[in-house]
């Protein structure tokens, strides 16, 4: 300890002594208690008028000097004392602030850069008021004042070598931060990637107008709002120059001037960022084998068997939710219907297909959604579906092989997956004009056309095959002959979980198609035999809404339970028949899945007004207007067939997800099919996401090519002969 300077309690502390009890050090937000006779004698001497030696000399004679020195050392180690230069004033609020922060006063030079048409004098003034030296030359820290964090002018600053902080002092919501440090932490491109993804309407408008973006906006602002932003930026600069470094994730601080709330929006480094990360990390995942291992089931009481509970999944990925830098803008309950529906929504569904205004009217599924037997299950489901869709969007860093089908030995022909009938291509233009984007018929595939292909792992052959990239990722550059959809896409709490869910969805959609397009009567499921309080409550809720509910068994040749929950309105001008579907090895889970999916679509139907109907998706509008349970008899159970009960399916529980995966895989392979898996997990997300493809399995949309759609119903005895193409259901499945 130096002895030429004066020693004192730090300037943010005021001393109060209660003789015989304690010394109290009072700060702006805390009181520290010091006890002992020696400290009571020492405290009055630490008033900033004495050097350490003088303090020791002025202590009472009965206090040994060595004990007094140790006490001073302990106070110093606890951060309670400081040394004051001779010319340092005792009453200095700014010095007291830095004492409280346990930081030295900031030293260094700050440069202010303006990007775009935005005032910056307030920022310069704020820096000077904070005691910082503002310069136009080389500096230790840079503040960039802008109107939009997506302004390409910020790239120039980002190429520098000094730390810098953006600030947006305009608008009703001012932004400050984060601090960017070249070579450490997230870079500007990491932030831009997330910001741009949360402005889809602007992206659509820029694309429609042929502008690179961002869009020019009116200058909006108030002097008090700008002052708050600029002084906050000055504070951040001062703290940085004083040595303060943020812990945890960096963030944008947003000040809402209307409700005076401040919000933090975390900014994370993207491992695959082409500027600060490894852009090859996604390609490494694409080209690696999909290796599955034993995985214990930890959650079996909701709508599936999972390797983690819903609460664990929410805790693990909730940081990805946010309107500014989040992957998912928000998660909210759909409050248009009964609370029992447990229907949650989580932003735009990128699997829908249309963009712009068309996306607002597309279908009941224009947003990502979650369902479940509890609000927690539904909230987690909505989060996972949004992350699943996000992970399947083409980013440009995926593995591709360029070539034509004729030249690639490992390529799988798209026709074996898309399964359109040649006759659908003939009148495709008229058909597409009359139906929604879900039913879109592409151009015929040209075996000689050169396009991008992506490796997919064959669980059957234990090797990679190739599928068109445009069939696997939303928005991937591709010819008009291939399209991407969500069939077989799944997220899970583990890779095994995701693969199982993806395969079950393939099985479910196939069974729906066999029933729907053949219009066969199916057996009923005995809901009383389920013995499930959730089922009983659901029937009571629907009865209170004047709706009837029944369940059909759609299980096909694979033997994996697939159930359809059907509901119609009683006594109204329209039946408004709706469906929910579920597939699972456990028939009780399949039942819950079907019923919760029915719940998921009910809020939109319950809130539907007559004046809303003309604006609906065309296929949904036609269905609600024209179709009833009476004129579509395949919607009703076959009264001749025996009613099905859960015990009729012969399910044997197992506590390992891998066992279930292998059971479904082997079932498909016994029918001569190959199971393909693409791992779409994104390194910045972490949630396991896969795309499962099984060539030959049917989609539930109107894809009427030869194969199982015609053969399996005959094999199962549902029909005496294959239905003719012209006899298939003219009403496409619209969900």
From TrEMBL:
Q: Which SUPFAM superfamilies match?
A: Activating enzymes of the ubiquitin-like proteins
Q: Name one GO cellular component term.
A: ribosome
Could you tell me what this protein is called? Answer: Ribosomal protein S12 methylthiotransferase accessory factor
Alphabetized GO MF terms:
transferase activity; ubiquitin-like modifier activating enzyme activity
What PANTHER family does its record include? RIBOSOMAL PROTEIN S12 METHYLTHIOTRANSFERASE ACCESSORY FACTOR YCAO
* InterPro entries registered for this protein in UniProt: Bacteriocin_synth_cyclodeHase, TOMM_cyclo_SagD, Ubiquitin-activating_enz, YcaO-like_dom
Q: For the YcaO domain, which residue ranges apply?
A: 370-735
What is the native source organism of this protein?
Saccharothrix violaceirubra
* PROSITE patterns hit by this protein: YCAO (PS51664)
Task: Give the UniProt keywords, A-Z.
Answer: Ribonucleoprotein, Ribosomal protein, Transferase
| Record's keyword annotation contains Repeat | no
């Amino acid at each position: 300890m130096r002895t030429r300077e004066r020693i004192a309690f730090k300037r943010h502390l005021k001393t109060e002594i209660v003789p015989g009890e304690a010394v109290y050090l009072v700060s702006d937000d805390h009181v520290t208690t010091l006890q002992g006779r020696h400290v009571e004698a020492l405290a009055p001497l630490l008033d900033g008028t004495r050097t350490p030696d003088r303090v020791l000399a002025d202590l009472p004679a009965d206090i040994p000097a060595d004990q007094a020195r140790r006490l001073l050392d302990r106070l110093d180690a606890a951060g309670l004392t400081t040394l004051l230069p001779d010319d340092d004033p005792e009453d200095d609020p700014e010095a007291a602030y830095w004492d409280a922060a346990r930081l030295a006063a900031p030293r260094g030079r700050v440069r202010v850069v303006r990007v775009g048409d935005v005032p910056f004098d307030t920022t310069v003034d704020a820096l000077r008021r904070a005691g910082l030296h503002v310069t136009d030359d080389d500096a230790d820290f840079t503040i960039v004042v802008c109107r939009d964090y997506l302004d390409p002018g910020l790239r120039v600053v980002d190429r520098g070598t000094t730390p810098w902080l953006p600030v947006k002092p305009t608008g009703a919501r001012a932004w400050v931060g984060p601090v960017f440090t070249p070579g450490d932490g997230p870079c500007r491109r990491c932030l831009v990637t997330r910001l741009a993804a949360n402005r889809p309407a602007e992206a659509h408008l820029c694309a429609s107008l042929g502008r690179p973006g961002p869009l020019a906006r009116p200058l909006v602002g108030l002097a008090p709002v700008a002052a708050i932003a600029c002084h906050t930026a000055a504070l951040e600069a001062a703290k940085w120059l004083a040595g303060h470094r943020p812990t945890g994730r960096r963030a944008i601080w947003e000040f809402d001037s209307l409700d005076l709330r401040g919000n933090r929006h975390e900014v994370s480094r993207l491992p695959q960022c082409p500027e600060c990360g490894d852009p090859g990390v996604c390609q490494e995942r694409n080209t690696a084998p999909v290796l599955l291992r034993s995985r214990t089931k930890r959650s079996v009481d909701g709508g599936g068997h999972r390797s983690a509970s819903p609460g664990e999944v929410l805790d693990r990925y909730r940081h990805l939710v946010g309107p500014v830098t989040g992957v998912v803008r928000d998660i909210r309950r759909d409050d248009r219907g009964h609370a029992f529906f447990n229907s949650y929504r989580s932003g735009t569904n990128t699997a829908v297909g249309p963009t712009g205004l068309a996306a607002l009217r597309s279908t009941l599924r224009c947003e990502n959604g979650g369902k479940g037997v509890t609000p927690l299950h539904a909230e987690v489901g909505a989060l996972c579906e949004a992350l699943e869709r996000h992970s399947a969007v083409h980013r440009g860093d995926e593995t591709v092989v360029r070539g034509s089908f004729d030249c690639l030995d490992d390529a799988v022909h798209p026709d074996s997956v898309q399964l359109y009938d040649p006759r659908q291509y003939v009148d495709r233009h008229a058909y597409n004009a009359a139906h929604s984007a879900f039913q879109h018929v592409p151009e015929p595939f040209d075996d000689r056309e050169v396009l991008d292909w992506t490796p997919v792992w064959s669980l059957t052959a234990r090797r990679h095959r190739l599928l068109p990239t445009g069939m696997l990722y939303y928005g991937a550059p591709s010819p008009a002959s291939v399209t991407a959809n969500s069939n077989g896409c799944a997220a899970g709490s583990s890779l095994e979980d995701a693969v199982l869910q993806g395969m079950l969805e393939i099985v479910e959609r196939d069974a729906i198609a066999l029933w729907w397009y053949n219009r066969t009567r199916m057996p009923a499921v005995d809901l009383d035999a389920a013995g499930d309080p959730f089922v009983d409550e659901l029937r009571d809720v629907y009865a209170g809404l004047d709706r009837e509910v029944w369940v059909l068994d759609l299980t096909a040749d694979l033997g994996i339970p697939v159930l359809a929950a059907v509901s119609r309105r009683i006594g109204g001008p329209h039946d408004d028949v709706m469906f929910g579907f579920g597939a699972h090895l456990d028939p009780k889970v399949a039942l819950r899945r079907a019923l919760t999916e029915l719940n998921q679509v009910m809020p939109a139907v319950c809130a539907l007004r007559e004046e809303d109907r003309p604006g609906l998706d065309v296929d949904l509008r036609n269905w609600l207007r024209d179709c009833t349970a009476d004129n579509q008899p395949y919607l009703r159970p076959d009264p001749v067939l025996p009613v099905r009960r859960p015990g009729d399916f012969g399910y044997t529980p197992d506590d390992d997800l891998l066992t279930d995966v292998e059971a479904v895989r082997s079932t498909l392979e016994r029918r001569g099919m190959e199971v393909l898996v693409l791992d779409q997990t994104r390194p910045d997300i972490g949630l396991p996401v896969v795309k499962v493809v099984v060539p030959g399995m049917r989609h539930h949309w109107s894809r009427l090519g030869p194969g199982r759609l015609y053969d399996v119903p005959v094999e199962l005895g549902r029909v005496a002969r294959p239905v003719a193409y012209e006899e298939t259901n003219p009403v496409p499945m619209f969900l």
